[in-house]
Amino acid sequence: MPKAKGKTRRQKFGYNVNRKRLNRNARRKAAPRIECSHIRHAWDHAKSVRQNLAEMGLAVDPNRAVPLRKRKVKAMEVDMEGRPKELVRKPYVLNDLEAEASLPEKKGNTLSRDLIDYVRHMVENHGEDYKAMARDEKNYYQDTPKQIRNKINVYKRFYPAEWQDFLDSLQKSKMEVE
User: Fold this and answer.
1) Four-CA torsion 148, 149, 150, 155, nearest 10 degrees
2) pTM for the full model?
3) Over the stretch 77-132, which tens digit does the pLDDT of each residue have?
C-alpha cells in the first residue's frame, strides 16, 4: 500500500555528529568475533585485550609467559621475585577451558557412503583380486589396482569392527552356497 503524500522526510546531514568517533565505534563493534564461548562471555569491551586476558589468567604473549631458561640462575630468580603477580579475577574461564581441553576428541572424519558401497561391492565380487577389481564395470573412476587396494585399506582403518562383521558375513554366505 502506498504511503500518504508528504509523510516521508528527506534525510538531512547531521552536523553535530562526531564522524571520527562514530567510525571508531563502528570498527570496534565489527571487531572479529571471539570463537571461544568461555572467553567471549567473560570479555569486557571497556578493557584492553591485555587486561581482559590477565583477569582470566591467560597470557597475551606466550613467549613472555614462559620465559626461556637463562645461563644465570640467580638473575632469573630475582626477575621472578621482582615482578608483581597479576590477580586472576575470572578463574572460572581458565577452569572451563581446562575442562573442555581434557575431554576426549571426537572422531570427525568419516568416509562417504559411495566409497563404502564401492569397497563392499569390490570385495564381495572379487575378494582379494585387485586386477579384476580394476576391470570391474563399477570402477567408474578407473582406479588402478593399487588405488583400489589403498581405498580398501582406508576402509579397514576407519571401520575395523564393521569390516570384520562384513568379512564374517561373506564367510557365512560362502559356507551356505557350498
Assistant:
1) 90
2) 0.46
3) 545 554 556 788 899 999 999 999 999 887 777 899 999 999 999 999 999 999 99
Output the nine-digit C-alpha cell for 42. Answer: 567473560
- Other Cβ atoms within 10 Å of 53 Cβ, number: 19
Residues with Cβ within 8 Å of 42's Cβ and at least 6 positions away in sequence, in order, are 52, 55, 56, 90, 92, 93
Residue with cell 571508531: 24
Instruction: For 153, list phi and psi in degrees, rounded to 5.
Output: -65, -35
Q: Which residues contact 45 (CB under 8 A, 6 or more apart)?
A: 28
Percent of the chain whose predicted confidence (pLDDT) is above 70 = 88
Residue 131 grid coordinates = 586386477
Cell (9 digits) for 150:
589403498
Give the three cell numbers for residue 81.
621475585
The cell for 55 is 583477569
User: Measuring CA to CA, how many Å separate 162 from each of 11, 154, 169?
Assistant: 68, 13, 11
